[in-house]
Amino acid sequence: MIYQGQSLTVELLATGIAELVFNAKGSVNKFDQQTLTELDEATQALQVNQDVQGVVVRSDKSNFIVGADITEFTALFDMPESDVLVWVAKAAQVFDRFEDLPFPTIAAVNGFALGGGFEMALACDYRIADTTASVGLPEVKLGIMPGFGGTVRLPRLIGADNALEWMTTGRDNKAEKALAVGAVSAVVAPDKLVDGAMQMLQAAIAGDFDWQAVRKEKQSPLLLNANEAMMSFSTAKAMVAAQAGKHYPAPHMMVDTVAKAAGLGRDAALKIENQGFAKLAKTNEATAQVGIFLADQLVKSKGKKLAKSAITDITQTAVLGAGIMGGGIAYQSAVKGTPVIMKDIAQPALDLGLAEAAKILSKGMARGKVDAKKMAATLNNITPTLDYSAIKNVDLVIEAVVENPKVKAMVLAETEQHVADETVICSNTSTISINQLAKSVTKPERFCGMHFFNPVHRMPLVEIIRGEHTSDSTIAAVVAATLKMGKTPIVVNDCPGFLVNRILFPYFAGFSKLLIDGADFVAVDKVMEKIFGWPMGPAFLLDVVGMDTAEHASNVMAAGIPERLQKIENDPVTVLYQAERLGQKNAKGFYDHSVDKRGKPVKVAAELVYSLLAPHCADKQDFDKDEIIARMMIPMANEAVRCLEEGIVASAAEADMALIYGLGFPPFKGGIFRFIETMGLARFVALADKYAHLGAIYQISDGLREMAASNQSYFAQ
């Protein structure tokens, strides 16, 4: 044994080849500080061993190395930029020293080799992958860039254009694609991987492969003349500007880094990479995106843990109500392989539900993501019916009828009479109290809320709403079913609007108050989209939600939380609703909606809306962008804080993920709690106090004031 560590070992075989094997204690190999240190020690041991003629780097797990240990990033990013620069330079030099070993090296890549894992493979002279392999540099998804030599070695292997596409999108690349561009040297079957690596390495040792020339190419300037460089980097900059926009600095930094380093050798190029990494690590966007990753891991782990505890296996589902929402839920169950019975009281509704599922599948076929076999299997998994007797043997019933408490109560009571005693019953409601609806069933312990977001097939979030009598086994079963449907469950407690809508409607109230004070809805939308980063501004979002839905939900919120969410006099949403301007559903809302010649949606600010609102609003005036953002976001943040303080949601991380998955909260801001933390709790309190005169939704809680005063964090470990 040449080297024995906790995460990796190096053993010399009789052939003179050393095997460097990654085999960490956990389920996957990661580059944490311990592993980096061990790699450096192993490299030094190889350097001085006179018997080693070559090294095979491989994994003893089902994946090669999945990347850096992101749990260590929070502490790293808290350091001053100069300290981050020192850290990343030292870490990168570990890979340089490995690359400089005086004999050929090869990586045998299986499963995922991502981020630092792929950079380990790039530091080898050759890479052989098996057919299970996926390689890539996904650091952009964390708001950073490769820091262990990826921006230097990959462009010199596969060309600057290919490398920048890989790095700025962060996508994984299957083995065959990697082979086609030269990122790996060969692809073999899994059972041939180690033997194939040994054979290639022996050929290099024998001189059949010029490994020194291969290594020199990775360490030399890029082979681009001035015109080629200008074209390549100009194209890359334009692509990044179009796809990433201005809110994500990492892909822009990658292009600049590769461009600046193009004419340099390895060591000088790596210094530029080190500097770019350190700068990005200190950005708010990196902190936010790393926070999202960790929050997502938390949500997923909690979901998996709950699902494992489920004692009810959901093998047959029923959906009651076959409208757009019911059809979407039925599709989601069916496409993931769980047969579903779709029940309604009218045949036209069933036809609509089936048409909704077929429409989603047809769009998938048009994009090449669904084949005829998948379409047939999915539609065959949906059984339409008008008869309650068809649901008698299902494991889970999801009620998705009209958003009316009396109608839902009646349907739930009827449903309970037609299903088995152990059947779990859920209501897909966006605002109606689960505790109230539970009164319509005789066994409330098997009842909970299951709030899907529209469109169901696109929106990843499902809120699982626990009523006061809901059993743990019911929650576990519904979480398991949600995961089986390919969705992300977040468990919340019952309250008006639950979590997402309760946080959303104060935001809408802030918008209404702005309009009443004379703001132009187009100007507000522009600021919230272009400056803050929402996918759509509040006026456009209300058009998508529907003015009738928003009016109904705001009435529910006003009744449930009258101290803050009482109805606003002359609310612009109510004015539009009464004028039958419902939004996209009837092509008339704040905007007039149509489609162009290519069938793409078009929206134009409706002049009639200005006339409708004029009698109820102050004269039009311009508001500063910072004031618009403050007046929109303070109410949302305040309500999120209250939800956490009241135990509606278990953690700030889960609240952040709920808003990202349920509303499209700008990921580069990391979620509503990350938004508050980035501003600083004390600064947020001062800003909110500045607008406290506008009403209760701008007044912060005592708990937040105390946290700010004592310099606490919502993300304390």
Automatic annotation (TrEMBL):
Keywords: Fatty acid metabolism, Isomerase, Lipid degradation, Lipid metabolism, Lyase, Multifunctional enzyme, NAD, Oxidoreductase. PROSITE patterns: 3HCDH, ENOYL_COA_HYDRATASE. The keyword Isomerase applies. Pathway: Lipid metabolism; fatty acid beta-oxidation. Its EC number is 4.2.1.17. It comes from the Bacteria. Belongs to the enoyl-CoA hydratase/isomerase family. In the N-terminal section; belongs to the enoyl-CoA hydratase/isomerase family. NCBIfam families: FadB (TIGR02437), PRK11730.1 (NF008727). This is enoyl-CoA hydratase. It comes from Paraglaciecola aquimarina. The gene is fadB.
